What we know:
mainly beta, 4-stranded antiparallel sheet, 3 helices
Amino acid sequence: MTDKRNRGGTDVHAGKAAATGGNDAIADWGRGMSFHEVRLPARLAFGSTGGVERRTEIVTLASGFERRSSPWALGRRRYLIGANLKSLADMAELTAFFEARRGQLYGFRFRDFADFSSCGPGGTPAATDQTLGIGDGVRTVFPLVKRYGDPGSGPGQAVERPITKPVAGSVRVAVGGTVLAGVGFTLDLTTGRLTLAVAPGPGSAVTAGFLFDTPVRFDADRLEVTLESFDAGRMAAIPLIEVRV
Length: 245
């Protein structure tokens, strides 16, 4: 007997598993095909709250000392959006965006207005903002990263966050302090991988400045809207969570 319970459903991993025989390519496919390269309209996120989350495991020893460790090398961002929407038109637009992502199924770009630039708040990205690596005369690919840490912090103290969703037209690059023209590099906007036309010489620092989005997905498969008048309503806060891509 044929099981028809899931007919018409969508499984972003199962379809590829059938096509590839279930090999490791599924992971690469899932990272790309389960993400939509669209950004949530900024006005639908006004009034959002959120920030970075860490996971720390703490064991208190008999002596009273603590042993602390973390299974996460990087923090993970969480947000709440939609609670400030009052217009039925805005709610309808957010509902349409939610449906197009199939709820939690597909990721998308989100502008975190507290952290979306290689430089500090209110500044303009410069080609020397972030160090991507040091040339060796051979290497040409340098993924975008943003560092977080105390000023003057020693080795190992700063956190390097991979930037996988840079904003088109915002990236500035320098090699050894010399700003490159646009023809000197190419950038994959879906991965944040920067490829230089010419390998930097040994010891030459490769730096970049940029704007970026945070890759997220909805962290719920349900929206709740309350109609308060013919032209206005209220929407329950909708959670978003950062995804690795």
